[in-house]
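Suppose you are handed a protein chain with no further information: no name, no annotation, nothing but its sequence. What can you learn? This example shows the usual starting point.
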Amino acid sequence: MDVPPLGAPFGMMNRRRFASLFTGLAVTQAPAAMTGSPSRPIAPIHPVHESYDPVAQRFLRAILEEEPVAVFYQGGSTPGALRHFRPDSLYRLEPGGPIFATGICQLRDGTRTFRLDRVRLA
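A reasonable first move is to predict its three-dimensional structure. Written in structure tokens, the prediction is:
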């Protein structure tokens, strides 16, 4: 199969060749939690850019400085464990609701979402 080099625009490949790359792949329907449904719609995300909460302020500073934050998280599989968390974003699911942070947890070596009212700075 002739595949264009990485970074090459798809305009270099005609539609038939592009479609042939996906021949034989199984296509499944996404779960309702990902697509939303009348009974369970996808929640809108409200980004947090400023806050009076000292934990949120520390996380916002860490995002700007691209550095990890040492925290104790009262949740997950190891409640109270010291974690080094590099946040990517802060948001609320509804205006005035709790603030969530998404980023990389070095303890788990993966992406995690923390609810900030369960976080204590180390």
